Batch of 3 targets.
Target 1
Amino acid sequence: MLERDNASAMLELDNASAVRGSSTIWSEGTFRVPSASIVGVIGPNGSGKTTLLMMILGLLRTATGSITVLGREPQRGDSRIGYVPQNYASVAGDSIRARDLVLLGLTGSRYGIGRTSAAEHARVDEVLAEVGASDFAQRRMSQLSGGQQQRIAIAQAIVGNQE
């Protein structure tokens, strides 16, 4: 059983296991990540890194045990979490402008960009500057280098002030 202290945790796994199909990917996962921590997930191919992230994002349930993200069970589409997928460029699409993609992270939905306020545009400008992407924000994603696309992906992940 995971020993808890008074500090809030960003992420907790308590005897969690991951199963895909009939294969156990990993089991007895128990750890705690305090709030405001920076964590790297490393391991060989097939070791369950992507599976862990899918569980944190609420896209896959634990087979046993529990996972708590920001004090709650993981939920698909949790707006408190900013996430940059491994294959961001292919998911983003080529024809959208970089700036509009960041704006979608703030105001978007499956219906696209609706009416936006001056404050929302100012927030997008602020985040683009934070990640060093202001100079190429008007260009289409297909015109950006891999590193520039990563900057846009990070901007989109943090524009909503996720926890």
Target 2
Amino acid sequence: MHPDGHVSWFLNGKLNVCENCVDRWAEETPDRIALIWEGDDPSHSKRITYRDLHTQVCKFANMLKRLGVRKHDTVGIYMPMIPETVYAMLACARLGAIHSVVFAGFSSHSLRDRLDDAHCKVVITADQGVRGGKVIPLKSVMDEALKECPLVEKCIVFKHQGHDIDWTEGRDEAMRPYCPLEPMDNEDLLFMLYTSGSTGKPKGIAHSSAGYLLYAAMTHKYVFDYHPGDVHACVADVGWITGHSYVVYGPLCNGATTVLFESVPTYPDPARYWHMIEKHGISQFYTAPTAIRALMVHGDEWVSKHDLSSLRVLGTVGEPINPEAWRWYYEVVGRKRCDIVDTYWQTETGGHLLTPLPGAIRCKPGSATRPFFGVEPVVLDSKTGQPLEGDDVSGVLCIKKPWPGMMRTVYGDHERLLNVYLRPYKGFYHTGDGAVRDKDGYYWITGRVDDTINVSGHRLGSAEIEHALVQHPGCAEAAVVGFPHSVKGAGLFCYVTMNNEYEVNEGTVNELRDIVRKEIGPIATPDHILIVPALPKTRSGKIMRRLLRKIASNDTGSLGDVSTLADQQVVSDLINAAQKLFNKR
């Protein structure tokens, strides 16, 4: 790994990402369906061919050109999961503009910070979004953000829900259906996505054109065993890297039919995913363990009444999947015949780093198994920084050599890339995650390095304890954090949610504690177990462990930025529950 972070693939090469994702398929297979839009309302869906996709992208690109967007300009996108969002991304790529998609659920404050840091010249939004039956006032949020974004010159608005906004009818209908492609250098930036940083300031993770596109397409093809005619459904939002790589760029570069899902897994009922799979004949389905666990709670009957015979590959992303959820996914959803790909990667990596390959690698529930082609993972001793040789070792997960999809910089702050990813362990890319390489050479992600808890000199991984807790028949989800302990240095505080049908009694906490003692040992015995209705999660479904640590430490005077929380009431409920627990001491 070069110490200055310099990475280059296809040196002196030229391409246009939009040409690879749209034009060539519009010419070769114009009538093939490119996008299937599944609206929030299950009765609303739309199919867009590659021919139509090409026309819409060109019209959009011409509109951007008319507004002064040029090569290397940055365009902000704050949109719901609708086809126009994909048109906007591809139109930017066609012109050589850099797009920065912001998840359409962030507050005006968070949106402002991202648009300002990205130096956006033009922004794109919609009147409103809708998700799970709830209206999201996107234009109002954008208006508030733009009050403090002096660099933004123009704002484009799509009318998605028919909300009353300032509008000039017919103004854009005359846009020409063809727009010339802008030749791009291999290392020109395609997009940036903002991800949370330990300092609190989001990092603009910037990805290249050629290397990123190759890696997104290649991982999509081999990890999901894609074949022409398959219908690929990744239900992530395009506001996150999973949506970029496995809703848009990977599938479209391979000429696939890709699903754009606007809703949530439980709207209008817990059969939403399964109804969609049957309706569209989906071949590959990709979702998060959080969603799987949420659906497990509702029982098997919602799944079993649907024809899921079209499914061939089931994927998980975003966090390690606990073995119980893995087995339910395999047995109930996949009917014991679909391959499961438990993928490990990051916004920074562009695509999968560790993953099974369907039919080629034997799975172990909860393990991300082995590296993708060309990826060289190493497990380092956290103190010495030296690689741990052989198998049956645990330490810090790093990557030895660059790969095509690797981030190129932190936008406007390359020094931050060096400090966060390359300098902690010289010569390696530092993932920030711990890992175990077992006796068979399989990799198990043990959680963020800062999620390792030192109890009486023993380093315990939060994920390991969480896996033990969810073996309880009533446990739906668990999150474990450390808190200061006067004797042990750190104690273990466990937050647990239970299945709806499970009746909690006075012995439930002791049952949970005994499972941890049995599975891991007395050293891992939890100090506190708090049974709660819900865990604090971001809008992308990730647990905000920083808040859990503060609550466990009884340090709730200043919680910091909570703008990314999906439901802030959850935090208030947790604080109240924890106070009752502390008062019993």
Target 3
Amino acid sequence: MSEEIKGRISVETENIFPIIKKWLYSERDIFIRELVSNASDAITKLKKLHSPKNSKEAPIIESI
């Protein structure tokens, strides 16, 4: 039977970004795919935040 161990982890962003850059985005295709995916997620979130039920502002004009 394994024993549960609790603790804390602290990560400084300046220390993690070089690791992400080297291992996660080392291939150009992966970087482009992640960039497009993140942009798509941001647009979806923006649409939800500015939906008629959440906002009385003018609708967002979409174009790519």
